[in-house]
Amino acid sequence: MKVRTFAFVYGAVFLIVAIAGFIPGMTAPHTHPDVTVTAGMGLLLGLFPVNVLHNVFHAAFGLWGLVAGRGFDAARIYAKAVGIVYTALALMGLIPALRLHTTFGLVPLYGHDVWLHIVLAAVALYFGFRRDADR
Hints:
Strand content: 5-15%
Pfam families: DUF4383
Strand order of the largest sheet: 1-2-3
Helix content: 55-70%
Distance between the termini: 10 Å
Largest sheet: 3 strands, antiparallel
Number of helices: 4
Mean pLDDT: 95
Keywords: Membrane, Transmembrane, Transmembrane helix
Radius of gyration: 15 Å
Organism: Caldimonas mangrovi
Protein name: DUF4383 domain-containing protein
Low-confidence stretches: none
């Protein structure tokens, strides 16, 4: 797969996930004492904790991926950024100290989000840093 295709696919998936996070039937009720932004709080597909800020974050990465997929260099930068940011988010999701697992109370990153972020980061890092990338 080309890095441009990767950016388009990730962008589309992030955008779909963002939209799904805003659909009440796609999220199960959920609360967490360390999350202070409770608007849109729920478990997407009954597994992944989300709130309105989490959905906006996904939408931003989705739009960025769709735009970045139009050029090789932009797609490569996008892949590297997704890999690095999602690695950081996965690590934060493991650390309840200072409420890092909820991004200081703003965005839930714990539970099933941790392994999902690890998988997303690993794939993105592969496409962002592989030496034989196809244009």
